[in-house]
Design a protein that fits this description.
This protein is α/β, with parallel strands linked by helices. It has one domain: 3-Layer(aba) Sandwich (Rossmann fold), CATH 3.40.50. It contains 6 helices and 6 strands. The protein is globular and about 50 Å long. Strands 1, 2, 3, 4, 5 and 6 form a 6-stranded parallel sheet that branches.
């Protein structure tokens, strides 16, 4: 099972990057995760798009299309999605050949505050609905007080956090298996094409 991770924080040692790495450790045995770097994407510009899809955008869209599932980890900025991450999602959504269409997606978020980024996940769900992604409904992962749950090396020190991230990654694995069965039996256009 090929899973890619996208982190909404640009900071190398962000709590959400640590959470995304934890999600990669908690995957089912047959799964692997590659964290994709989207920093090279330019600001979304219709004039630039009119000259053709930038190569960095094309490569990221193709990587998403090939993946079996996606894990998105992001901080919450002003109750919403960080601007640069929203820009990346907007680029990915350009064109009729939507790479998120029917793609299993899990959302995780962490914050130093008590809510764990709950509001940003609501905003992400709206965007992903427009992109026709199949967002995992439960279990949800919001890691509040996250700075107290990871050590200076970025390793999770909280058994409860590891447990519910593992539960979510197992559920994502089941959703991917369900998608594969549907695709194999019904040949749904756009599903793993």
């Amino acid at each position: 099972m090929d899973i890619i991770g996208l982190c909404g924080s640009l900071r190398r040692h962000s709590l959400n990057r640590m959470l995304l790495e934890l999600a990669g450790e908690c995957l089912p045995p047959q799964a692997t995760m590659q964290v994709c770097d989207w920093r090279a994407l330019p600001p979304l510009d219709a004039d630039l798009l009119a000259t053709g899809m930038p190569e960095s955008v094309h490569q990221l869209r193709e990587r998403i299309r090939r993946a079996d599932a996606i894990v998105l980890a992001t901080p919450e900025y002003n109750f919403s999605i960080p601007g640069m991450f929203k820009n990346a999602l907007d680029w990915i959504s350009r064109g009729d050949d939507q790479p998120f269409r029917h793609k299993p997606v899990a959302l995780v978020s962490a914050s130093p505050g008590p809510l764990g980024g709950a509001r940003v996940q609501y905003e992400l769900r709206k965007v992903l609905q427009c992109m026709e992604a199949d967002v995992l409904a439960r279990p949800e992962v919001f890691v509040g007080q996250a700075a107290q749950k990871f050590d200076s090396q970025g390793l999770c020190t909280d058994a409860a956090t590891r447990s519910f991230v593992t539960a979510q990654m197992q559920a994502l694995g089941r959703l991917v298996a369900q998608h594969r069965r549907l695709h194999d039996s019904a040949q749904i256009p756009g599903l793993h094409d």
